[in-house]
Write a structure and sequence with these properties.
Helix content is about 0%, strand content about 35%. The chain contains no helices and 14 strands.
């Protein structure tokens, strides 16, 4: 996958740059790359596996379904749906965990892809600051996500389809 393949039509960037304290790089106005992402216990999941996406190290997540579990590496490029590793049937509700400590990724918000779906958060800096997070849906096949940098919405996948929760 190259820059030309990133789905830019559904990507909104609400400011010109990224904060200096987060693990996000804005390579141009529509090419957002997560360069570090931490679990609640502080493990960096970017580069924890061996897969690269357009030269960028992937984000490793331990994914657990009812019948199987395994490592999944996600593209760190926002808008790139690529992933490698364990597969699950489309629509499967999953538990997303750190591959090192197996801590479940914390709740961020409800996802509108279906009833009961939630976005789980990865922190974009070592301080695990709530102002800098990535949200990943816990339904296999859902491509809705969001990146929040410095309390500003940097991007939102499928605008309007992410609800505030809890």
């Amino acid at each position: 996958m190259g820059r030309k393949d990133v789905d830019r039509q559904r990507l909104r960037v609400t400011r010109k740059g990224t904060s200096r304290t987060s693990g996000v790089r804005l390579l141009d106005q529509t090419y957002v790359v997560v360069t570090q992402a931490f679990c609640p216990d502080g493990h960096n999941l970017v580069g924890a596996g061996c897969t690269a996406f357009d030269g960028q190290p992937g984000i490793a997540i331990w994914v657990r379904g009812d019948e199987s579990q395994g490592l999944v590496e996600l593209s760190p490029i926002h808008g790139d749906k690529s992933k490698s590793g364990q597969e699950f049937p489309a629509g499967t509700k999953l538990r997303l965990e750190c591959p090192f400590c197996r801590t479940e990724l914390p709740y961020l918000a409800e996802c509108a892809c279906r009833k009961g779906a939630t976005l789980r958060k990865l922190f974009l800096n070592e301080k695990r600051d709530e102002a800098h997070v990535v949200g990943l849906c816990d339904i296999w096949g859902c491509t809705r996500s969001r990146v929040v940098d410095g309390n500003e919405l940097l991007s939102e996948w499928l605008a309007g389809n992410i609800a505030s929760g809890d």
